[in-house]
Structure formats: C-alpha cells, structure tokens
Amino acid sequence: MIIASARHRGSDRPVLGSAVSIGLAVASMTGAHAAPVVRRASPIPLEAVTFDEAERVGAAGTGCVWLDEHGRRRVFMANDRALVRSNGRIVRLAPAAGALETFPSVFLDWTGPGMRIVIHDTSKVRERGAEFVETEARLELVQAGRKRSWRGRLNCGS
Prior knowledge:
The protein is mainly beta. It contains two helices and nine strands, in the order H-E-H-E-E-E-E-E-E-E-E. A hairpin with a 4-residue loop joins strand 2 and strand 3.
C-alpha cells in the first residue's frame, strides 16, 4: 500500500486518506478481511449401535468402541470384526488390506460394503480405568468417493 507523504499540520502522523481507502477496497475484493467460513460438522451417517447387536456378530468383549461427541457408540471393534449401523441395517466390517493391529487383536482401518472407516487415535487420554483407556479420536468415513470425519473418543479395554 502506498502511503501519502503529506502530514497533518502540526503533527507527525501521515495523511492516509485515499491510500487507506484503496487498501481497504483491494482487501475487500481479494477477501483478505472476509469473515472466516464456519463449517458445521455434518451429521454422522452411522447410527448408534447397542452392545447386544455387537455381541451377536462377535464384535463385543475385549476390543474398542468409537463414541461420538455425545457418547453414542457408533463403531464396535473386536479381533477381526467390527460393525456399524447405517440406514437402519447392521453392517459388518473387516480389517482393510494392510491394516495394522493397534490394541491387542483390534484394527483401526476397516472396510465394508460401500464404505471404509479409519479411526485416528490421538493418544490424548481422556479417562483411564483398571481395564480400559479412553482417548480422543477422529472417525474418518469414505463413502461413494466422499471423505468426511468427526471427532469423538476411542474406548478400548475388556
């Protein structure tokens, strides 16, 4: 921005006048002073899952569960089995090719019909008990070529 060299009478302050106006006009055209865009998280397309449902498909017991920010269980994982509920139906998941085992016999990278779920564990402990640990974790869902993610918690234990 060019600042005029003129000064106010009896002052050391430069006269900004049109230079400031030009600068503000340029900033508003380029978006330099635009308000940040606030994006709200879209609703998780995975519905809450009950312990009984997880037990029926062998995805309960020693393992992990991913909970949304409200504490609803969305993904159960045990051994090489995981499940979610989508569109009112239970969907069984299997470890993705090349998935690494993290918690004893539990994977955090899963695939199922038309979806891939990856749990990104931050290792930031929120709560710890005698037989469990709960950390902050992000769920990433890829469906129909669209990748979305949500914050939540990963609770692992027996």
